[in-house]
């Protein structure tokens, strides 16, 4: 990788982490405009960084779909936002299932049990949103399984993404608590970074000396 591209990647990644800190701080102090503006910059910045890392097109598509989801969820187009995130997870699944390191049925069983437990606990408070939330949670759980089969870093990223969305589901089910918003965005940002870097790091390992600097 050329030094100029490497330096640009570091600057963009620093911008992503800076925007994450601003986003979490804005949630804590309840600065609405700052919350919205910092949130919609997160995934575009991570997407720009992924390009400097030669991320595969489907991974970049997942980040762009996530960016669209973040933007749409700040409007009245909630269902469109959920659909955008569903598209992001479909892209992640395609990436991870195309090159799994090792399929573990224990991982599958553990996440299946977790999904069932979450839906059982949250369903009474979800009302008419029960089925859409369960379907989306199933897709997110599939991403968690496939990413863990891919490698540990991506697996941790998907687990944090699952935690983030579970926290949102808790709010929808009427089980909100202080600090939930900041925790939601913290786990979301770190999760997305680990999902992305888990793929690009593995690519570097596979290409060997061709990408050594």
From TrEMBL:
Protein name, per record: Lysoplasmalogenase
Matches recorded under Pfam families: YhhN
Coiled-coil region: none
Family in the record: Belongs to the TMEM86 family.
Keywords: Membrane, Transmembrane, Transmembrane helix
GO molecular function, one term: hydrolase activity
Major localisation: membrane
Cellular-component GO terms for this entry: membrane
Membrane topology note: Multi-pass membrane protein
TM region positions: 12-34, 77-96, 108-127
Compartment(s): Membrane
PANTHER family: GH04784P
């Amino acid at each position: 990788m050329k030094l100029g591209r490497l330096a640009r990647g570091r600057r963009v990644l620093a911008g992503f982490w800076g925007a994450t800190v601003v986003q979490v701080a804005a949630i804590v102090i309840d600065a609405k405009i700052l919350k919205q503006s910092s949130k919609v910059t997160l995934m575009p910045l991570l997407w720009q960084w992924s390009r400097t890392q030669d991320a595969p097109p489907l991974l970049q598509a997942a980040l762009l779909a996530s960016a669209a989801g973040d933007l749409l969820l700040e409007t009245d187009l909630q269902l469109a936002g959920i659909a955008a995130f569903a598209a992001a997870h479909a892209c992640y699944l395609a990436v991870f299932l195309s090159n799994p390191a090792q399929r573990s049925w224990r991982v599958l069983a553990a996440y299946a049990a977790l999904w069932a437990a979450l839906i059982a606990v949250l369903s009474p408070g979800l009302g008419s949103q029960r089925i859409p939330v369960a379907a989306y949670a199933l897709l997110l759980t599939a991403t968690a399984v496939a990413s863990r089969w891919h490698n540990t870093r991506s697996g941790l990223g998907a687990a944090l993404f699952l935690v983030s969305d579970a926290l949102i589901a808790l709010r929808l089910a009427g089980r909100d608590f202080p600090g939930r918003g900041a925790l939601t965005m913290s786990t979301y940002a770190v999760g997305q970074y680990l999902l992305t870097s888990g793929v690009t790091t593995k690519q570097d390992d596979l290409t060997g000396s061709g990408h050594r600097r």
